[in-house]
Amino acid sequence: DAKTTQPNSMESNEEEPVHLPCNHSTISGTDYIHWYRQLPSQGPEYVIHGLTSNVNNRMASLAIAEDRKSSTLILHRATLRDAAVYYCILRDTKYYGNNRLAFGKGNQVVVIP
Amino acid sequence: DGGITQSPKYLFRKEGQNVTLSCEQNLNHDAMYWYRQDPGQGLRLIYYSQIVNDFQKGDIAEGYSVSREKKESFPLTVTSAQKNPTAFYLCASNDPGQHQETQYFGPGTRLLVL
Predict the structure, then answer these.
(1) What pLDDT, in 10s, does the model give residues B44-65?
(2) Looking at beta carbons, which residues of chain B come within 8 Å of A99?
(3) A100·B107 Cβ contact <8 A
(4) What are phi and psi of A73, to 5 degrees?
């Protein structure tokens, strides 16, 4: 199974950009890169996803390396509400067609006022 | 509003008791999932269902059972065979026809053993 590697935790100052790295060196050609985040005591929520090209939405930007072996989630201006665990996930290729997502431990982002 | 609801928010289980966690969605999604989350850990898949009247075991199905009699409902029963049931349980759903496979999660149920 394709897996991802993230830092256990990161700190960021409020109102500054945050770059969350993710390594996925065994990614396959048809794996989508998904990012979810989980606020304390809540269910995860979708942030962004991509395949090859960089992606932007109202929540964040996703920068994907040319070889697709790594990606970076960018929060352009961190707020206290962005403090959460961020998960970088690849579609589980072992179970093609059934949409399984394999969640690791994620990256705990702390935003400092 | 469309979404996923889980109830109850907190649930207490006595020794040897079976308990059922509710999950309902009005998103018209075919697929539904149950995850378990232990403190400081990621989510682990318990069971999933791609369509009504069909479901498959996930990575940690032992001690759990599910049913999928209606498209909008996917209840999870934690049986007495599950020796360490204390955890945060999350239900999710999505539309398997969409290649981007975004999953929508409920607010979770926290199960505690008395």
Answers:
(1) 999 999 899 999 999 999 999 9
(2) 31, 94, 96, 101, 103
(3) no
(4) -90, 130
